[in-house]
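Task 17 of the worksheet. Students: predict the tertiary structure of the chain below and write it out as C-alpha cells. Keep your answer in the requested format; marks are given for formatting as well as content.
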Amino acid sequence: MSREPASIEQTQALLEQANYVADRALSTTLYLALKMQRPLFLEGEAGVGKTEIAKVLSQTLDRRLVRLQCYEGLDIGSAVYEWNYSRQMLEIRLAEAAGSVDKAGLARDVFSEEFLIERPLLQALRSDDRGAPVLLIDELDRTDEPFEAFLLELLSENQISIPEIGTVRATEPPLVIITSNRTREIHDALKRRCLYHWVDFPAAERELEIVQRKMPGIDQQLSQLLVNFVQRLRQEDLFKLPGIAETLDWADALVQLDQVALDPTTIDGTLGTLLKYQDDIAKIRGSEAARILEEVKLHISVSQPRRG
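Model answer:
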C-alpha cells in the first residue's frame, strides 16, 4: 500500500509526523514533486532545513535515503561509479595463467556490472522492496558546472549512460531532492528539469512551533524570548545570519544550562552556538546583545494581551 500523500493537507500532515513544520507553499511543492515524479530543487540560506526535508521524506515515506554530499572537485568516480581495478587485474591474470586468453571476450567480461562499484547516483536508480529511494544531492553549489551538466541525463531521463556497458535506467524514478546555499548560481538547464522552492527563514510563530516540537521540555517563556531574539538578530548586518539549525542549537544549550530566562551574561556566554564567525560575535556581544534583549522583551510585553 502506497504511503504517498493524496493531497497538500496530507503532505503537510506527513511532515508534521516527523516534527517538520512546513508552510503551505512548501507542502504544495513537495506534493507536486511526488505526483509529477519531478526532482525538487531547494534553495535558501544554510541552516533553514533544506537537507532535513529529504531525511523527513525518507522516514515518513519509508524509503531508503541515498545521500550525495557535494564538494569542490567532486567527480564521476566519487558520485556515480568506478571500476574495481584490482578485481579486473586479478581476472586478467587468472585468464592469462589459464593459457587461453580471448582478448575481446575478456574485455567484455571485466567491463561488466560484476566489476562495477556503484556510487550514490547509480545506487539511486536501484529500487528495493520499499520502492525507489530518496536521492539527496546536498549543496550542489559547492561543485562546478561540468558536474551539473552530467546530472542533466539523470534528472530528465532517470538514467545514467556508462560507455562500457550502456545505459542504466531506473525501474521507478527516485525522489530527487537537490539543495543549494546559493554560494553560486546554478545553471538554468538544471533548474528547468526541477520544481523549485526557496526555503526562507521561518516567521516567528512557525519558528516558535519548531522549537517547541523539537525541544518539548523547554520553558515556554524562554522559547518565546529566544525565538524573538533570533528573529531580531536576523535584522542585523551580519556575515552569516543564524538559521533554524542555530536556533535549535541555542535552545538546546540553554536547556543544558538549566536556563529559564535570558540575560546579557548568558547570551554572551552562548553566542557561539548561534553565530559562527568571530566578527559577528564581537559585533553582538556586550552592550549590543543587552540592547536587543531589552528591545525584544518590550516587544513581547506590548504584543501580549492584557488581562483584566
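Marker's comment: Residues 287-303 form the longest helix (17 residues). Residues 8-73+120-198 form a domain with the Rossmann fold fold (CATH 3.40.50.300).
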